[in-house]
Amino acid sequence: MNFSVRPYELKDLFGIAEIEKECFEHPWSYDSFCMEYADKHKHYFVAESEDGKLMGYGGFAHVEDEAHIMNIAVSAPYRRSGAGTEIMKAILDKARSLDIVAVTLEVDNSNEAAIALYEKTGFVSAGLRPHYYGWDKPARIYWYYFDRKQP
Ligand SMILES: CC(C)(COP(=O)(O)OP(=O)(O)OC[C@H]1O[C@@H](n2cnc3c(N)ncnc32)[C@H](O)[C@@H]1OP(=O)(O)O)[C@@H](O)C(=O)NCCC(=O)NCCS
Fold first, then answer.
1. What is the torsional sign of CA 3, 92, 144, 72?
2. Which atom of ligand 1 is nearest to the CA of 47?
3. What is the spatial distance between Cα 111 and Cα 109, in angstroms, rounded to a whole number?
4. Distance, C-alpha 1 to centroid of its chain
5. Minimal CA–CA distance to 105: which of 46, 59, 146, 148?
6. Is the beta carbon of 81 within 6 A of some atom in ligand 1?
7. How much of the chain exceeds pLDDT 70, in percent?
8. Which of 79, 81, 133 to mutate to test the pocket of ligand 1 (most atoms within 8 A of CB)?
9. Which of 29, 47, 53, 79 has its CA 20 to 30 A from that of 3?
10. Residue 148: which pLDDT band, with cuts at 50, 70 and 90?
11. Which residues contact 99 (CB under 8 A, 6 or more apart)?
12. In this predicted structure, what is the pLDDT of residue 147?
């Protein structure tokens, strides 16, 4: 499938919030994404099909010399076509251009698709954070380092 990845624009926020609703049990609201958009320390990207449909999005917060990935999601009909990987590459490229040294994220330890994407991209697990998503729902913490070998 042909698509491109680009930084998000104001006009994308409604579509992003729709994908968020589709993908998550406790979705961020449209207003939350408006606040993200107004924050110069947040950097998001969207994947857009050649016929102009929003396929997915992902972004990070720039905190000191680290990037904290806020979220990444691809609408179900567009999964397994490489969009998640390309959004993640755009995130890493942007982080590198900002002299960020490491990128981190948390993921539900039962989320096999996301875990597979992160490990394929080169993220390394730093263990579990218990009860992060609720009782008995630990988060797995991942890190990606630019300038040194992964531990
Ligand atoms: C996780 C997610 C973003 C992946 O997006 P995607 O566009 O389907 O990912 P890609 O097509 O780039 O897949 C990259 C690799 O990840 C792995 N992968 C993706 N989906 C997978 C699945 N369902 N099962 C196993 N591995 C999977 C594969 O290794 C895949 O490479 P391959 O297709 O060459 O085998 C998508 O499944 C999603 O939006 N899930 C719901 C939201 C979510 O959970 N986000 C993460 C929150 S932390």
1. negative
2. 7
3. 6
4. 20
5. 59
6. yes
7. 97
8. 79
9. 29
10. low
11. 65
12. 76
CA–CA separation, 141 and 102 (whole Å): 13
- Using the mean position of ligand 1's atoms as its centre, give its distance from the Cα of residue 70 in Å: 16
How far does the centroid of ligand 1 lie from the alpha carbon of residue 15, in Å? 20
pLDDT computed for residue 39 by the predictor:
98
Non-local (6+) Cβ contacts of 33 within 8 A are 13, 16, 17, 20
Q: Is the pLDDT of residue 149 over 90?
A: no
- Atom index in ligand 1 nearest the CA of residue 69 equals 48
Beta-strand ranges (E) seen in the chain are 3-7, 42-49, 54-63, 66-74, 102-108, 124-129, 139-145
Residue-wise pLDDT tens digits, 119-133 = 999 999 999 999 999
Ligand 1 mutation target, pool 21, 54, 71, 74, most atoms within 8 A of CB: 74
